[in-house]
Write a structure and sequence with these properties.
The complex is a heterodimer of chains A (391) and B (409).
Chain A (H helix, E strand, L loop, with lengths): L2 E9 L5 H11 L1 E3 L2 E3 L3 E10 L6 H8 L2 E2 L3 H5 L10 E5 L17 H15 L5 E4 L6 H14 L3 E4 L7 E2 L10 E8 L6 H13 L9 E8 L1 H8 L5 H8 L8 H5 L11 H4 L4 E7 L4 E6 L7 E7 L3 E7 L9 H15 L6 H19 L5 E2 L19
Parallel strand pairs in A: 1-4, 1-6, 4-5, 6-7, 7-8, 10-13
Antiparallel strand pairs in A: 2-3, 9-15, 10-14, 11-12, 11-16, 12-13, 14-15
Chain B lengths: L1 H5 L11 E8 L5 H11 L1 E3 L2 E3 L4 E9 L6 H7 L4 E2 L3 H6 L9 E5 L17 H15 L5 E4 L6 H14 L3 E4 L6 E3 L10 E8 L6 H13 L9 E8 L1 H8 L5 H8 L19 H7 L4 E7 L4 E6 L7 E7 L6 E6 L13 H14 L6 H19 L5 E2 L19
Parallel strand pairs in B: 1-4, 1-6, 4-5, 6-7, 7-8, 10-13
Antiparallel strand pairs in B: 2-3, 9-15, 10-14, 11-12, 11-16, 12-13, 14-15
Helix pairs in contact in B: 2-11, 5-6, 6-12, 7-12
Classes of the chains: A alpha/beta (391), B alpha/beta (409).
Chain lengths: 391, 409
C-alpha cells in the first residue's frame, strides 16, 4: 500500500516550493539515474492562499485527492481520525507579513501545532517533513523539535542546500578539526541567508565533538564588513577559496567575460552595495562567518580551514529553473524518512540555523551589537554518512 | 647545467614557459576569450585564484571584429604582444621559434561552410604554419588544439602524423571529458561495456563533437582499450523517431541519461520537471539527430542531439555485471543565463598547463583524432541521405591512462 500523504501548504503555484516538491510525489522525479516513482500517494491538501495561477484545483482533479478547508480536516481526510501516514508542511511563498527584523511570518509553527493537536487527540503521530526553516522564531522552532521528541515522531526539516550536488563533491571528514569557516551567499533576507546558513551548518556540524551550540552572534553591514575583513575578523584567504568555486562573478565578467580575482582586484566594494556579515561564535570556540555579497555572485560557496588538510572549499550547486533538480535531492530524503520513520539528518540542524538567523537579525536591529546567545545551546551529532546528492 | 646541455631547448630551470596563442577571433564568450583569458587573468582552481606558472607572451588573431577584445587584453597585459602573422607570434617577431608552447583556438569567427554544412575553421592551416616554424627553427614545442583537430578527416590525420613524426606533444579536444560530473563518477577501469549513449543538444558539426567526446572519454576505459570504429549511421528528423521505435539505441539508457539532466524541458505546462513521453519528445525536439556507431570490438554507441529537450550532456552505459545503467552528467556551468563564467574551460586550461610544463599530454590525442573522425563520419552519413558510412579509416587503437583527468578537486 502506498504511503498516504497530507500536504499542508501556503500556496500552490508554478515554481513555488509546494509545486516542485509535491509534484515530485505525483509525477516522480530523477533519482540515482532513474525516473523514480515513489510509493506514496497524496491524499489530502490544505492550501492557505489561492492567488491567480493556483494549481491546486488542477492537481486534485488530475491526481484524485481533495482540498480540505482546515489542517485537521486534511489530516483526517474529512473523517474523525488521523487518516494519513505522513505530512508535508511546505510553508514557503505566498503573501505573509514581515516583522520588524524583516522575517516573513510564515505560519509553519502554527500549522505544525495544529498537526500535533490532531496527533494528541487521535492518539497517533506520523512523520512530518517541514520545508525550509522550522520557524522565524527560535522559541517556536524549539517547541516543534521538542514536541516531536516528546510524542515520538520523526521530523525532517530544512532546504535543499545540504543535500544538493557539490562542486567539487567533497564532504568534511566526521570528527575533523575546523579552524575557521566561511560561507558566501547572496539574495534577500530572510529567505536566502537561511539557505546560506544551512549550507554552512551542514559542513561545520561534522567537526570534532559534534555540534555544541552558539555562544554569540553579530551582524554587521556595509563598510563594517570590509573593515572586519581588513582587521582579520574574517579570512580573505577563505573568501578567495569560496569565490574560486563561483560560476557567477558579476561586474567585468558580465561585461566582457573575463575571469576575476574579486578579493584582490578591488571590485567587491563596488559590486556589493550592501554587504552583510554574520559572525557566529560556537560554544566550542569555532568561528564562522557568512558573507551575503549580493551583487558579487549569484551562487553559494563554502570554505573552511581544516587542521591537517588545509582549505576545503565547494559550491552548493543550485541547478537551474525550471527543473530545480536540487529539490529532487530533498524529496529523496523526505521519502526515505516517510519509509523508515527515521530522519536521515537531525532537525536540530534546522533548529540551530533558526537560532543563528533570528539572533543575527536581532543584532542588526539592535545597532549591530554582538549578542550572547546562551539559549541557542543546540547540541547534536552529524549523520555519519554523507547525505548530499552524489550517486 | 648538465640538464640544460642535455635538453638545450627545454625551458630554463628557473624560467617560466612562454606560450603563443593562435586564434581565429576574440570576442566575449568565444573560445579564445575563455581560454586565453585564463592564462592572462588566472582562474578559480583548487580553492584559490590560480595563475598559471607560464607566460602567454604572444597572440595572433585572424579576425578582428567590432566586438574584439584582444586589443583590450593586450593593452591590459603588456607582457603579451599581438603579431600580424602566426610565424611572428611564434618567433616573437624574430627568426626562430621563441616560445615553449602553442595554444591553437580555431573556434568561432566567420569562415565558409561547405556543402556538408561544416564550418571550415582553419585549424589545419594554422597548424601547418605553426609546424613550418618548428621545422625552420629545428625544434618543435607542445601544441594544444581546441576542439576537433579539423573538419576534414585527412587533414586531421595529417596533423596527428605530423606531431608524431616531429615528436612533439599534441593535445586537443573539448571541455566535456575534463569538466565536473554530477555525480562525480569515473568509468571503472577495464569495465566490460555493452552499450553506451549520450543525450545532448546543439547542432551538427558543432555540439555533436562534444557529445562524441562525452562518450569516448568514458568508453575508452573499457577492457581492451580503444579499438577504433567500423561504421557510423546517422538518423535525422522522421528517421530518428523511426530508429527510436525500432530500438536502434536502448530506451533504458536514453531514459537513464535524461534522468541525469538538469535542464529537461517540461513536457506539460504547469509542471517544472516531468519525464517526457514519446509524443512529448516528438513535439519538443524539432530537429533530432542520432549518430549510431560500432567499435571494432563490437561496442555500440549512440550520440543523440535533442535540442529542445535538454541543454546539457548526459551519459549512460550498460556495464556487464551491473543491473542498473551507469550514468552521469558532464556538467558544463554554461554562461547562457545560468552562469557568467564558462568555468568548464578551467580544467581544460589546467590540463594544457600540465602538458606545457611536462611536455606530455595528460590524455591521448588519439581520443580527439577518433572523435574528429566520428564527427566527420556522422556529417558524411547525413550528407549521404542517412546511409550507413563504413569507417575503416577509423581503426584507431589506443589505451588511455588509468588516472582520471576530469575535474573533481
Amino acid at each position: 500500500m502506498p504511503k498516504r500523504i497530507a500536504v499542508i501548504t501556503t500556496v500552490y503555484r508554478y515554481l513555488t516550493h509546494a509545486q516542485h516538491e509535491v509534484d515530485r510525489i505525483l509525477v516522480g522525479y530523477p533519482h540515482n539515474g532513474q525516473w523514480h516513482r515513489p510509493d506514496m500517494k497524496v491524499v489530502s491538501l490544505y492550501v492557505d492562499q489561492k492567488p491567480e495561477g493556483d494549481l491546486s484545483a488542477a492537481r486534485t482533479s488530475e491526481f484524485g485527492f481533495q482540498v480540505y478547508p482546515s489542517i485537521a480536516a486534511a489530516l483526517r481526510c474529512g473523517g474523525d481520525k488521523l487518516a494519513v501516514d505522513a505530512i508535508m508542511i511546505v510553508g514557503e511563498h505566498g503573501d505573509y507579513p514581515r516583522n520588524e527584523k524583516g522575517q516573513i511570518l510564515y505560519p509553519r509553527y502554527e500549522w505544525f501545532k495544529q498537526c500535533v493537536e490532531v496527533f494528541e487527540k487521535d492518539g497517533r503521530a506520523v512523520p512530518v517533513f517541514n520545508d525550509k526553516n522550522l520557524s522565524y522564531s527560535f522559541a517556536k522552532a524549539k517547541w516543534m523539535v521538542e514536541t516531536a521528541k516528546r510524542l515520538g515522531f520523526p521530523v525532517l526539516a530544512g532546504s535543499s542546500l545540504p543535500v544538493t550536488w557539490r562542486l567539487p563533491d567533497i564532504e568534511l571528514p566526521l570528527g575533523c578539526e575546523i579552524e575557521e569557516a566561511l560561507m558566501v551567499g547572496e539574495g534577500e533576507s530572510d529567505a536566502m541567508d537561511y539557505h546560506a546558513l544551512e549550507a554552512l551548518q551542514c559542513m561545520v556540524e561534522r567537526r570534532k565533538g559534534g555540534e555544541t551550540g552558539i555562544k554569540a552572534v553579530q551582524l554587521v553591514e556595509n563598510d563594517e564588513v570590509w573593515n572586519a575583513g581588513d582587521a582579520g575578523r574574517w579570512s580573505k584567504e577563505l573568501l578567495t577559496a569560496a569565490l574560486s568555486r563561483s560560476d557567477t562573478p558579476q561586474g567585468m565578467t558580465v561585461t566582457d567575460g573575463r575571469t576575476q580575482d574579486l578579493v584582490h582586484n578591488g571590485e567587491l566594494p563596488r559590486l556589493v552595495k550592501n554587504p552583510w556579515a554574520y559572525f557566529i561564535e560556537y560554544a566550542d570556540g569555532l568561528k564562522a562567518t557568512l558573507l551575503m555579497l549580493t551583487g558579487a555572485v549569484t551562487d553559494f560557496n563554502f570554505a573552511a580551514r581544516v587542521k591537517g588538510s588545509g582549505i576545503q572549499s565547494t559550491q552548493f550547486l543550485l541547478t537551474p529553473e525550471p527543473n530545480v533538480t536540487y529539490s529532487a535531492c530533498l524529496i529523496g530524503k523526505v521519502e526515505e524518512m516517510f519509509a523508515t520513520r527515521k530522519a536521515p539528518y537531525p532537525a536540530e540542524r534546522t533548529l540551530i540555523v533558526s537560532g543563528i538567523l533570528e539572533s543575527c537579525l536581532t543584532s542588526r536591529v539592535q545597532n549591530h551589537q554582538r549578542l550572547e546567545t546562551p539559549h541557542v545551546k543546540v547540541q547534536y551529532q552529524a549523520p555519519v554518512q554523507s547525505q548530499h546528492c552524489r550517486t | 647545467m648538465g640538464a640544460t646541455a642535455a635538453a638545450p631547448f627545454a625551458q630554463k630551470a628557473a624560467g617560466r614557459p612562454k606560450l603563443a596563442a593562435i586564434c581565429t577571433i576574440y570576442f566575449r564568450m568565444s573560445h579564445a576569450q575563455h581560454i586565453v583569458d585564463r592564462f592572462l587573468d588566472g582562474y578559480g582552481w583548487n580553492g584559490t585564484h590560480h595563475h598559471p606558472p607560464m607566460d602567454l607572451v604572444s597572440l595572433y588573431v585572424d579576425q578582428i571584429g567590432k566586438d574584439d577584445l584582444s586589443r583590450e587584453r593586450a593593452a591590459r597585459h603588456p607582457e603579451m604582444k599581438m603579431y600580424p602573422t602566426i610565424a611572428e607570434a611564434l618567433t616573437l617577431g624574430g627568426t626562430k621559434l621563441a616560445v615553449d608552447g602553442v595554444v591553437l583556438v580555431g573556434e568561432h569567427g566567420h569562415y565558409p561552410r561547405n556543402d556538408r554544412g561544416q564550418t571550415q575553421y582553419p585549424r589545419y592551416e594554422f597548424f601547418q604554419q605553426i609546424t613550418q616554424v618548428f621545422r625552420e627553427s629545428g625544434r618543435p614545442v607542445p601544441v594544444f588544439s581546441d576542439k576537433h583537430l579539423s573538419w576534414n578527416w585527412d587533414w586531421a590525420k595529417e596533423m596527428y602524423q605530423t606531431a608524431r613524426s616531429m615528436d612533439f606533444a599534441l593535445m586537443a579536444g573539448s571541455s566535456l571529458p575534463v569538466t565536473w560530473r554530477t555525480p562525480s563518477l569515473e568509468m571503472p577501469w577495464g569495465a566490460k561495456i555493452r552499450e553506451a549513449l549520450c543525450v545532448c543538444y546543439g547542432g551538427v558539426d558543432s555540439y555533436d563533437f562534444h557529445g562524441l567526446e562525452t562518450i569516448q572519454c568514458m568508453v575508452e576505459r573499457r577492457r581492451g582499450g580503444e579499438t577504433g570504429v567500423k561504421w557510423v549511421q546517422a538518423y535525422r528528423g522522421d528517421n530518428f523517431w523511426k530508429a527510436y521505435q525500432e530500438s536502434a539505441w536502448p530506451h533504458d539508457l536514453m531514459e537513464a541519461a535524461l534522468c541525469r539532466s538538469h535542464t529537461l524541458t517540461p513536457a506539460r505546462p504547469g509542471f517544472n520537471d516531468v519525464f517526457p513521453a514519446l509524443d512529448d519528445m516528438r513535439r519538443l525536439v524539432q530537429d533530432p539527430v542520432a549518430y549510431c556507431y560500432e567499435h571494432e570490438d563490437g561496442l555500440k554507441c549512440t550520440m543523440l542531439l535533442m535540442s529542445g529537450l535538454v541543454k546539457d550532456f548526459n551519459f549512460a552505459a550498460r556495464l556487464e555485471g551491473r543491473r542498473e545503467p551507469f550514468s552521469t552528467q558532464m556538467y558544463l556551468p554554461m554562461p547562457d543565463g545560468r552562469t557568467t563564467l564558462a568555468n568548464f574551460f578551467s580544467p581544460l586550461v589546467n590540463n594544457m598547463e600540465q602538458m606545457f610544463l611536462t611536455r606530455k599530454p595528460t590524455y591521448p590525442v588519439e581520443r580527439t583524432l577518433l572523435t574528429t573522425g566520428l564527427t566527420a563520419a556522422g556529417v558524411e552519413s547525413l550528407y549521404r541521405k542517412q546511409e550507413r558510412f563504413e569507417t575503416p579509416h577509423l581503426g584507431i587503437r589506443y589505451q588511455p591512462s588509468k588516472e582520471s583527468t576530469f575535474w573533481r578537486t
